[in-house]
Amino acid sequence: MTRPQTDGYVVVVEFLVRGDLLNQFREAMMENAATSLRDEPGCSVFDVCQDSEQPERIHLYEVYGSRADFDFHLKSAHFLSFNEASQPWVLEKKVQTFERIAAPSGGH
């Protein structure tokens, strides 16, 4: 079986955030996402989603050009700063990675 050609490196992160610190977390996460999209050429998608029934559950969907682009993100000053500041706000964190094999035509 031939391995499919990939169209990016996808990172899906799910956070369970302390309710009393949810606003701080959201603000910091939105800044992290905006900075990633602005300053990292390898980052093409950084969606921040919130569960409408369980607001403390925050879900990220990130797309990078390659694993190397994601590794660059993990070493960036803005990510390291966010990661350190947000650790006390997070009750659970689950990270999954995928190779994207298809994307809608004409978009990310």
Give your account of this protein's structure:
By secondary structure, the chain is α+β, with helices and mostly antiparallel strands. It has one domain: Alpha-Beta Plaits. It has helices spanning 22-39, 67-75, 77-86; strands at residues 9-17, 43-50, 57-64, 90-99. The longest helix has 18 residues, at 22-39. It is globular.
List keywords for this structure.
single chain; Alpha-Beta Plaits; four-stranded antiparallel β-sheet; 108 residues; alpha+beta
Summarize the structure.
By secondary structure, the chain is an alpha+beta fold. The chain has helices spanning 22-39, 67-75, 77-86; strands at residues 9-17, 43-50, 57-64, 90-99.
Write the layout of secondary structure elements.
Elements: E1 9-17, H1 22-39, E2 43-50, E3 57-64, H2 67-75, H3 77-86, E4 90-99
Antiparallel strand pairs: 1-3, 1-4, 2-3
Helix pairs in contact: 1-3
Q: What does the main sheet amount to?
A: 4 strands, antiparallel
- What percent of residues adopt helix (DSSP H or I)? 25-40%
Tell me the CATH topology.
Alpha-Beta Plaits
**Morphology:** globular
Provide the CATH architecture.
Answer: 2-Layer Sandwich
Flag low-confidence runs.
Answer: none
Widest sheet: strand order?
Answer: 2-3-1-4
Mean residue pLDDT? 92
Proportion of strand residues: 25-35%
This entry's quaternary arrangement is: single chain
> What would you call the structural class?
alpha+beta
The first-level CATH class name: Alpha Beta
Distance between the termini: 27 Å
Tally of discrete structural domains: 1
Secondary structure tally, helices: 3
Question: Care to count the β-strands?
Answer: 4
